[in-house]
Amino acid sequence: MSSWRNFVLRIGEKCPEYGGNDDFKDHIETCFGAIRRELDYSEDDILVFLLQCAEQLPHKIPLYGTLVGLLNLENEDFVTKVVENTQANLQAALDSGNCDRIRVLMRFLTGLMCSKVLQPSSLVVLFETLLSSAATTVDDDKGNPSWQARADFYITCILSCLPWGGGELVEQVPEEIERIMAGIQAYMSIRRHVSDTGFSVFEDIYESNQSDNEKDFLEDLWSRIQDLSNNGWKLDSVPRPHLSFEPQLVAGKSHDFGPISCSDQSDPPAALSGIAFGKQKHEAESKYPQRIRRLNIFPSSKNEDVQPIDRFVVEEYLLDVMLFLNGCRKECASCMVGLPVSFRYEYLMAETIFSQLLLLPRPPFKPMYYTLVIIDLCKALPGAFPAVVAGAVRALFDKISDLDMECRTRLILWFSHHLSNFQFIWPWEEWAHVLDLPKWGPQRVFVQEILEREVRLSYWDKIKQSIESAPALEELLPPKGTPNFKYSSEDGGKTEHALSSELIGMVKGRLSSREIVSWVEDSVLAVHGFDITLSVVVQTLLNIGSKSFTHLITVLERYGQVISRICSGQDKQVMLITEVSSFWKNNTQMTAIAIDRMMGYRLISNLAIVRWVFSPSNVDQFHISDRPWEVLRNAVNKTYNRISDLRKEMSSLKKSVLSAEESTSKARAELSAAELKLTLMDGEPVLGENPVRMKRLKSHADKANEEEVSIRESLEAKEALFAQAVGEIEALFISLYKSFSSVLVEPLSDAFRDGTLRRTDAADEMPIDDEDSSAMELDKENEKPKKSHAHGDRSGNGYIVGEKEQWCLSTLGYVRAFTRQYASEIWPLVEKLDAEVLTKDVHPLFLKTVYSGLRRPMSDSV
């Protein structure tokens, strides 16, 4: 990389390029000198690279803004190109709805305004454009309030610029910025409050109105900006390097910013039904999602030096770094620990990372990414961050009973993987008390599931050794994971044992699946009936494939037809899954993998899996084990992935069809032009060019036409598969919600009255502390919680929620999780779901849970 690129990229960092110096003024002067020397030779490269750095390293925008300001003194034409390119990029981002790019480019424009590059009035016009669009959108008469998510996003973009340039705007154009603030205040008065019900990390089913009384994200940000304004726009988290160069910068030309237009507003639903409104609202919220839901897991004393607006700015820094450096682990960690702020922020950094890991409905990146970020931060800050992470785990563990079920699963997966990178070291004796809790206690189940996941990542004896400080926890370890093969001895019956041995011999003799099918139908099924046939075939083939994942896949590929032949109907497929579960009853992971692979090979259907998951033996485990839920998650996710992949393939093929049509049209036009052209042959004029070229043009036109026909046929085939997949996913969700409704109706009626949890007698006698979770105190020495949450697991007599109540809470939690995660597929089915499942006969709490997962108001059910 050339030296000027290094200077631009590393500006603001304590690095060799700048001699280990961290003074921003020196950095900017050094970088400016390097750029000025190269500007005449590499102007285009510098323009592209500088804009790219400003967009992808937005925590350095004040430095880049000042750098451009100095360049403005030397080369106005270059800076004009910077402004014009930024304007074009912002317009393209607004047209495509690229939220991150819109937000960052507006911040960059604010930085340019601070450095006298951009006219303040131009920035105000940009703000007014977005404000006008937002106000029109939420207007009931002129706009489409279902798209409030986009309007809120525009206002958020305006407000998030003010920490970087609010003071300068007030100083230079006080009346204009006052007009903007008044417009935002007017917008806040007409928009609808956004409730986090169903999307909060912590949520009690019996505290339904709590989130309605709290500020939503935009209301909170507006409050912080108002406080900042009242404080004279002073904050500690935004560097202002332009002030050091202000005497020079004022001599530069301030550029105007071209006009910007917001994307066209979506038409309101033709029929003002709740469903039509809800569908558009879901589309808007999917395209303009809320970036963060704050997770206040530490006591306020841990962040007492951080002002509310500084917290917002640091969160922006951290989220931007994780967004733009997601492919560079080391670089990401380095930037996160070196933010341009003057106060410590380890606790805020941990809360921000966990808020993303647990963000609902889904995190911006795969959970594995956050695992790696946390690991690298522990290595980068070995004296501070590991203790902060441990404190976060303890705080979340203390409130685990109120943690959303999907978040609980993510936390289990993250923590088990995190420990696997640190020799599985954890003070397990702190959690040994969970053995005194009932088997359904959330804390006990949490520890049990972590140990099960750790065994998957290592081996049983290693995990047993890791809990030596609390040997009693061995009770929660899973079985050693060996297969439960019925015919390892003659205990399973001499006849079955002999048949199994014969089948093993056939497989070892490499008989084809057709030959084995023939033997099964003639010698086993006809003689011994279906039950014995199923048991012998499935148990034997699974045993042959039990050595490894590869062995299992090989067996299913070679002999899946045998299983398919004897398990053709859904009832038989349910029995097949039961047999698989029996064989791997000691190994949850292999159970899930075997069933998932069988679904992949179309040996079992997703509907059969739903039926099996909701069989009585599995329903009894809903609140004490993740085993049935893992199988169900895999089945729904695989079905969803099929339809998602088909959508992508169809979209690609449609683009290919347009390209092929263009090529065919061009080839035909060339051929027609050649055919109409007069050519002299033997002195006589004839139509058409020379035969060789005509033959080549005709061949090219035919080939282009054939390619177009081929692509159209592929598209038609994909559309047929897509139609089939749509039918499959519709049947799956209808079956799933019918099953949920069926198993919940009686327990809910018994455990809840008027939507209120009926507690056990022991619970009624226990004092419950109802203070807000943010007041939870931590022991300074080891970060242990001093008091449990109101509905935590620990008390004098054990867990305060009875088994039936906990079963209901857990199952409803999974209803909400599935609804929330697959809302984009469920909304098109809402009418059918209302007609067949969500009728007036369903329990109100089940209905409320489904509605909250869809963010659908309960008024729609009236």
Automatic annotation (TrEMBL):
Residues 5-229 form the MIF4G domain. InterPro entries: ARM-type_fold, CBP80, MIF4G-like_typ-1, MIF4G-like_typ-2, MIF4G-like_typ-3. Residues 763-774 have a biased composition (Acidic residues). Residues 636-663 form a coiled coil. The keyword Cell membrane does not apply. GO terms for cellular component: cytoplasm; nucleus. Its main location: cytoplasm. It comes from the Eukaryota. Residues 762-797 are annotated as: Disordered. SMART domains: MIF4G. It is found in: Cytoplasm; Nucleus. Component of the nuclear cap-binding complex (CBC), a heterodimer composed of ABH1/CBP80 and CBP20 that interacts with m7GpppG-capped RNA. PANTHER family: CAP BINDING PROTEIN, NUCLEAR CAP-BINDING PROTEIN SUBUNIT 1. Belongs to the NCBP1 family. This is Nuclear cap-binding protein subunit 1. It comes from Forsythia ovata.
